[in-house]
Design a protein that fits this description.
Length: 132
């Protein structure tokens, strides 16, 4: 299993926890982890992965934004510090400045263009993002 896929599993686990407690969807700010998500979408194993990690089906929807990433503390409590893959683009380039800021401050401020949603939260015609 690749690092990006491992991190996607962790992201989906946090997604399920947030949805069960009435919190907002976590922001998908890593192009590398998002690429792994895109690779699994629509495959027979994706629904099983969602049920195993999040406890329910999870959709991938467009949701652009920028700001603090709200779920970092929950991630750290469960798994430790965010690994480098979260600061890596889809081509494998690491944003060293973003990692340094995270390590210095413990916070992540980033842009995102997608997030998870429950089946009831998305309209049938809402497009998936195409970032790869």
């Amino acid at each position: 299993m690749s690092t990006a896929t491992t991190e996607l599993r962790r992201f989906l686990t946090i997604t399920g926890q947030r949805f069960r407690t009435g919190q907002s969807a976590p922001e998908m700010f890593s192009p590398a982890v998002d690429a792994a998500w895109h690779d699994l979408l629509g495959t027979p194993g994706y629904e099983a992965l969602c049920l195993e990690t999040a406890g329910q089906p999870i959709r991938h929807v467009a949701n652009n934004g920028h700001g603090p990433i709200a779920w970092v503390a929950a991630y750290e409590a469960a798994y430790g510090p965010l690994p480098e893959i979260w600061f890596t683009d889809a081509d494998g380039n690491v944003d060293q400045g973003a990692i340094a800021r995270y390590r210095e401050t413990g916070t992540v401020v980033a842009e995102w263009d997608c997030s998870p949603a429950l089946g009831d939260d998305i309209a049938p015609d809402q497009p998936e993002t195409a970032r790869r």
